[in-house]
Design the sequence.
């Protein structure tokens, strides 16, 4: 009976090895998970920002000192994330935002640039917020840098 | 062994918390986005409502008047700031007689959107604001044969030529 009591609170060597292996695996993949998480967060934020911009412009709203768009359906059809290269030691990704708009908007350079500018800026603003927890002091953003990545955006009409 | 958890569970929970916390900002962004778009739609709808009243008063001639109740056009709610991260509609709403449009501005600087404006076209170019009276409460739009009079507080609506 005494021997059995002393055996309590112990684990087998297999269990310890298994735990050790899991710890090693988790530690090994942790940096990849962190980076993948960063990319998916940026992608989600870019999509949200672009959607907000399109929603506002589609309703007829315009940023101050910008061109008013003629009424029409404007939609985001695709937000692709493309690896471009490196930028100041960061991995540079670009969001290619595809937009559907009527021809009288898409083919008109004034309206097209105005709409695309709003979409790009809003996508980057949302990325900035996602990583910093606050909105940027700059009303116009052309690039957002995070700990591992640098993000830019472009806009094309379908 | 009671009240103990394995190291794997602790690790997995730690990672799950890490991932969830990293998406908190995204959650707030989406919350803000949905609300801002809804509020923006509501603000434009108010512009359309006022424009409709002005156009009706203009088209129906002298003596015709339209009354928009506070339930329809709630200026306190439109410009409400305390319950919102944004700043709501910038009051007063401007009626531009020269451009023949109602200009509504929304300040979304606190939710990353900057200041947005939308113009709702109107037909007449002779809209004049008057202070509300007992006979013509806010928001009454009346055609007096010369002008389209809109009875509203100066803090709520202004007209420019």
Sequence:
């Amino acid at each position: 009976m005494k021997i059995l009591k002393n055996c309590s609170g112990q684990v087998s060597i297999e269990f310890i090895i298994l735990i050790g292996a899991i710890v090693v695996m988790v530690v090994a993949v942790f940096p990849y998970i962190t980076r993948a998480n960063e990319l998916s967060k940026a992608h989600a934020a870019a999509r949200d920002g672009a959607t907000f911009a399109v929603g506002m412009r589609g309703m007829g709203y315009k940023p101050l000192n910008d061109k008013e768009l003629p009424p029409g359906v404007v939609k985001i059809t695709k937000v692709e994330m493309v690896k471009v290269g490196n930028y100041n030691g960061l991995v540079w990704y670009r969001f290619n935002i595809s937009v559907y708009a009527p021809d009288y908007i898409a083919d008109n350079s004034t309206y097209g640039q105005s709409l695309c500018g709003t979409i790009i800026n809003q996508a980057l603003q949302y990325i900035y917020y996602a990583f910093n927890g606050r909105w940027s002091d700059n009303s116009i953003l052309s690039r957002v840098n995070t700990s591992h990545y640098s993000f830019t955006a472009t806009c094309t009409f379908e | 062994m009671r009240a103990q958890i394995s190291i794997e569970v602790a690790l997995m929970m730690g990672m799950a918390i890490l991932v969830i916390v990293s998406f908190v900002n995204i959650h707030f962004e989406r919350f803000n986005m949905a609300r801002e778009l809804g509020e923006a739609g509501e603000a434009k709808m108010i512009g359309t409502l006022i424009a409709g009243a002005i156009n009706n008063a203009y088209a129906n001639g002298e003596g015709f008047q339209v009354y928009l109740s506070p339930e329809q056009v709630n200026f306190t709610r439109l410009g409400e700031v305390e319950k919102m991260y944004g700043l709501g509609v910038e009051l007063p709403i401007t009626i531009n007689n020269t451009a023949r449009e109602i200009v509504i501005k929304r300040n979304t600087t606190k939710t990353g959107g900057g200041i947005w404006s939308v113009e709702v076209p109107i037909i007449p170019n002779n809209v004049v604001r008057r202070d509300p009276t007992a006979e013509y409460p806010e928001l009454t739009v009346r055609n007096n044969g010369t002008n389209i009079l809109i009875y509203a507080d100066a803090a709520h609506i202004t007209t420019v030529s």
About this structure: The first strand of chain A starts at residue 62 and ends at 63. The two ends of chain A are 80 Å apart (CA to CA). Residues 24 and 145 of chain A are 30 Å apart (CA to CA). Chain A touches chain B through 37 residues (CB under 8 Å).
